[in-house]
Amino acid sequence: MSVPARTLENPTAASRVDSFALRHALAQFPQGIVAVGAEVDGAPEAIIASTFTVGVSLDPPLVTLAVQHNSSTWPKLERSGGELGISVLGRDQNGLCRQIASKDRANRFTGVDYQLQGSALLLDGVPMWLRTRIYNQVRAGDHDIVVLEILDLGFTEGAAGLVFHQHEFKTLTSLS
Question: Can you give the residue ranges of the Flavin reductase like domain (predicted)?
Answer without folding.
Answer: 26-171
